[in-house]
Amino acid sequence: MDQTKQIFNIYIATQKDFSYAEEICNEMEESAKARGTGIAKRSPDYILSKMNEGKAVIATTTDGAWAGFCYIETWSHGEYVANSGLIVRPEFRKSGLAKMIKHKIFNLSKTQYPEAKIFGLTTGLAVMKINSELGYEPVTYSELTQDEAFWSGCKSCVNFDILMSKERKNCMCTAMLYDPKDHYEPEETKQFFDENSKGLERLFRIRQWKLLKPFLKNV
Ligand SMILES: CC(C)(COP(=O)(O)OP(=O)(O)OC[C@H]1O[C@@H](n2cnc3c(N)ncnc32)[C@H](O)[C@@H]1OP(=O)(O)O)[C@@H](O)C(=O)NCCC(=O)NCCS
């Protein structure tokens, strides 16, 4: 497919988009398997509820196929917001679509929850890069929501034992956060990422190796 000619519609999903839920859910699971990384599992019903509540952004092609998706979750009674479940259909990756979806959901989050801290957990450099461009900064897990319901979402992740062994203070994911009341400018966080991305990638790999080591001993 010629991605340069592909035009996407990126909008807040509604009931009209219900038919995409199952395919989106399947792709989330397949992509997690392909990466060999963990994921908090989502059901099609959960995706439908996000669309119904006006808390999801979807990208579609002009011929009506879904191309990407992301949704908003709230924790600690709205004190924290997570932009979760970001997924781009494999054939449309690396054309800037995730970045556009993330910008849209970030703005939607700020409109719906102007006071909330917006955060995300990710194992991917692409997402770290996009977040950095939005003004997110890397933080420790202690700065995230301590809402039990959020952390119980990690139970379906393959790395849940690691998270528990570290008493929820560390795991394979990098935590990033945007605090509307106290944040760097996007130019600054972007510059930090650009200047440190090589080191961050290496640090990321070392940290994952260190976290996995005790578990590999028993294999
Ligand atoms: C991660 C994902 C959403 C990225 O989607 P995408 O549409 O390819 O991302 P974009 O094209 O908007 O890329 C954003 C930036 O990240 C970079 N990037 C994309 N994929 C990358 C990768 N695998 N490794 C490193 N950088 C990457 C791009 O080059 C781009 O940088 P630029 O602004 O300098 O050009 C997509 O690969 C995906 O759906 N993966 C499976 C699900 C997943 O991992 N979701 C994230 C869960 S936290």
Question: SSE string, helix = H, strand = E?
Answer: EHHEEEHEHEHHEH
Which structural category do the helix and sheet elements fall into? Answer: alpha+beta
The multimeric state of the shown protein is: single chain
Rg calculated over all Cα atoms? 17 Å
Q: Tell me the β content.
A: 15-25%
Helix content: 40-55%
The CATH architecture can be given as 3-Layer(aba) Sandwich
What is the strand and helix layout of this fold?
Layout: E1 8-12, H1 21-35, H2 44-52, E2 56-61, E3 66-75, E4 80-88, H3 97-112, E5 117-122, H4 125-134, E6 137-139, H5 148-152, H6 160-165, E7 174-178, H7 186-216
Parallel strand pairs: 4-5
Antiparallel strand pairs: 1-2, 2-3, 3-4, 5-7, 6-7
Helix pairs in contact: 1-2, 3-4, 4-7
The structure holds coenzyme A (COA).
